[in-house]
Input
Amino acid sequence: MSAAVRLPAREVRRSFVLNVVNGGLFDLAERLIDPPLVLTWFVSRLTASNLLIGLVAPLGDAGWYLPQIFVSARVQRMPRKMPSYAATAVVRALAWLLLAAVVWLVDEPLVLLVSFFTLYGVVRIVSGLSGLAFYDVTAKTIPPQQRGSLFAWRQLLGGLMGLGAGWIVKTVLNSAALPFPHGHAVLFALYCLAATPAMVAFIAIREPVGAAIEERVTVGQQLRRGGRLLRRDHVYRRFMAARLSLGLAGIALPFYAVYAKDILGAPEGMVGVYIAARVAAQLVCNLPWGWLGDRYGNRLALRLLAVGNGLTVLTALALVGLVSLLHPQGNWLPYLALPLFVLDGAVRPGHALAASNYLLEIVAEAERPLSVGLSNTLMGLIVLLSGLGGLLVDLSGFAGLFLTATALCLAAYVLATGLPEPRQVGRLR
Output
């Protein structure tokens, strides 16, 4: 039994509320700088390189995922992981403020590009260092049967608070008093303003002492242990294959906005409309995803996530075909992309449920840092690879990109279908 089950019900409720506040505020913060929309748009104003534009969102995700296996050996020796989370929180807040200051003060495109990618990369890598602590504390303080509801409520609160995020983004970016890139600097500062209390809320959770491995393990030994885990545990291996297929399918995500801007002629303020559509869809679908995971298990959630992502990229592919055949014209064209953001918002809550919660159910507590760290580092490599979507657009156009993403979603569905449901059949190896 995990430490979460042994905690008093009152303490579990307190941890649940603080965790939800953390997630809601972070969700609000992410909406203000939405990487596939706001940040991708920001970089597209500085360069015409599809490679750099396509790297924005994957760089942020990869920076969060990649470091985790390399620090997992140290983290798994800690009976309490919260101190490592608190240390990174300070660095993250300061880094966002520095990024806002640089973007406000600098106008030269090349300097802005280098500064942005450097500081944004640092921010995401430091965030990734806190990831193991976040998942371990969550697993120790929230029982498995409540984790689906936890992540659903995190995103629901974020959606409620983020209802105005689209309006804020549109107002800031359209303001004559905030010419480019000053509007983006303001959004970066607002991100820090929302993220700081989010981190404080999580630090306030009273983490119980948990299982720890006393043996000192080097990074090389930890990597070898991870390799053995992949070879010997067929459930973990198949889960990772499904998760990595879905992650690689993310090559399409940054280019929904780029397609709307370059082909449909969407103005800059349209970003706010797209964010509002995504938030509204996510808000409606949060609790159903949580109920689904708690009631029927996370294997089903993983399969439905693959289906939902596949439908989104198929819709994008259909839009490309429609525009190519009919060559429509008019100011209404940017609204043709709205279904993409609605569908993306509807399936987004499933990512936390299908990936994180399934993994937390199939690994032992003492080995959790290794399993989660390896999973996330491999995910980081795949997400970084997905940044090459820009090259795919250059070689085969938007249609080739969306068709590739569709095939990857189909592969993820097939792999997820072969996974066991831990609550029904127990742990299989």
Observations:
- The CA atoms of residues 185 and 382 lie 30 Å apart.
